[in-house]
């Protein structure tokens, strides 16, 4: 019998120590609904089904940790944005809240436990905690820039960085204040928490925008929670090579990167300062061959596993069209190449 459990592997990685092998996981996202046979509207509105889908994904693939995925518009909806739930894709944002910048002054920080959809997510986290045993799990929240973009409209927000930078800072202060409240509330369910900044990469913005309008607020959030001894991770989609040093300097404890970003570079820059997670290409889970998946997993492990502080993972949430066999190939390769010598 294996003497190491999933929790042992994750704790060892967080501490820069060693269990038997590199911990491995997948960001299942909406694929969990497909695996469980639930519609996407059910997955995003029924807390019991949401938790069951994640528990089934965890049981099926024996992942070492799991993220309880909400949707990227969850927080924006709490402030009045309209969201629709199509049958065949993730939720869509129908209306933004701040088409008129003056409306920012009308927004207030709500009590998360009095907002229906936030209560749905908190219940899903609590149910998942009860249903998934001995596997560390994390909730997910939108980062301050991503939430600002969902409230204002991302294109408008980017233009605002030139036309009205004071407004952008005002909005970022507001979203940062909200995240402090929301992260603490999710953490109270007994699970960890990760912050997603889907639109903060250099696939979307310039390094200057990150350094001027996002980095100060990331620093504030990470310092705030470190003072309260709460561990919070950061995921940024897309390409972040030009801002890697900036992101690391925020004091982030764990950074999850997508496949367009260089794992080699992040390992070199981090020097053990942060736990690294990623960055197997998500397309491989839908379209890759067994050989391609094995090669990608081996390359990530060869690059990042030395010195511990690494969690093998998909670069982002895997597609709805992902194949069960390909996820199995990923976990098989993790077991084949991930054992520490």
Question: How many DSSP-defined strands?
Answer: 9
Helix percentage range: 40-55%
Morphology? globular
- How many domains in all? 1
Q: What is the CATH topology classification name?
A: TIM Barrel
Contiguous low-pLDDT stretches (5 residues minimum) are none
What's the level 1 CATH class? Alpha Beta
Q: How would you classify the helix and strand content by structural class?
A: alpha/beta
Rg over alpha carbons: 19 Å
**Overall pLDDT:** 96
Report the major sheet: 7 strands, parallel
Order of helices and strands: HHHHEHEEHEHHHEHEHEHEHHEH
Q: Count every helix, treating DSSP H or I runs of 4 or more residues as helices.
A: 15
Q: Any idea what the CATH architecture is? A: Alpha-Beta Barrel
Q: N- to C-terminal separation?
A: 19 Å
Numbering strands along the chain, what is their spatial order in the largest sheet?
Answer: 1-4-5-6-7-8-9
User: How much of the polypeptide forms β-strand, as a percent range?
Assistant: 5-15%
Overview of the structural elements:
The chain has one domain (6-337): TIM Barrel. The chain has a seven-stranded parallel beta sheet, sandwiched between helices. Helix 12 (263-270) links the parallel strand 7 and strand 8 (275-280). The chain is built from 15 helices and nine strands. The mean pLDDT is 96. It has 341 residues and is of the alpha/beta class.
């Amino acid at each position: 019998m294996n003497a190491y459990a999933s929790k042992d592997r994750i704790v060892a990685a967080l501490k820069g120590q060693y269990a038997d092998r590199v911990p491995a996981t997948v960001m299942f996202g909406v694929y969990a609904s497909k695996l469980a046979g639930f519609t996407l509207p059910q997955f995003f509105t029924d807390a019991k089904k949401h938790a069951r889908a994640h528990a089934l994904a965890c049981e099926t693939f024996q992942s070492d940790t799991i993220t309880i995925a909400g949707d990227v518009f969850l927080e924006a909806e709490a402030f009045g944005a309209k969201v629709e739930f199509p049958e065949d894709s993730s939720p869509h944002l129908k209306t933004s809240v701040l088409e008129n910048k003056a409306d920012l002054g009308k927004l207030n920080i709500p009590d998360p436990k009095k907002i229906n959809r936030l209560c749905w997510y908190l219940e899903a986290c609590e149910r998942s905690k009860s249903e998934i045993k001995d596997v560390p799990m994390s909730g997910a929240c939108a980062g301050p820039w991503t939430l600002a973009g969902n409230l204002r409209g991302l294109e408008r927000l980017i233009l605002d960085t030139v036309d009205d930078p004071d407004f952008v800072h005002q909005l970022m202060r507001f979203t940062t204040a909200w995240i402090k409240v929301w992260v603490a509330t999710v953490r109270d369910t007994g699970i960890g928490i990760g912050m997603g900044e889907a639109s903060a990469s250099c696939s979307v913005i310039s390094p200057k925008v990150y350094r001027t309008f996002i980095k100060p607020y990331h620093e504030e959030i990470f310092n705030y929670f470190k003072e309260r001894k709460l561990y919070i991770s950061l995921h940024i989609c897309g390409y972040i090579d030009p801002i890697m040093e900036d992101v690391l300097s925020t004091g982030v404890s764990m950074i999850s990167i997508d496949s367009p970003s260089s794992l080699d570079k992040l390992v070199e820059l981090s020097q053990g300062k942060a736990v690294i997670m990623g960055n197997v290409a998500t397309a491989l889970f839908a379209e890759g061959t067994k050989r391609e998946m094995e090669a990608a997993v081996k390359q990530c492990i060869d690059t990042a596993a030395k010195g511990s502080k690494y969690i093998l993972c998909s670069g982002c949430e895997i597609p709805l069209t992902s194949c069960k066999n390909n996820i199995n190939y990923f976990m098989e390769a993790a077991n084949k190449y991930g054992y520490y010598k």
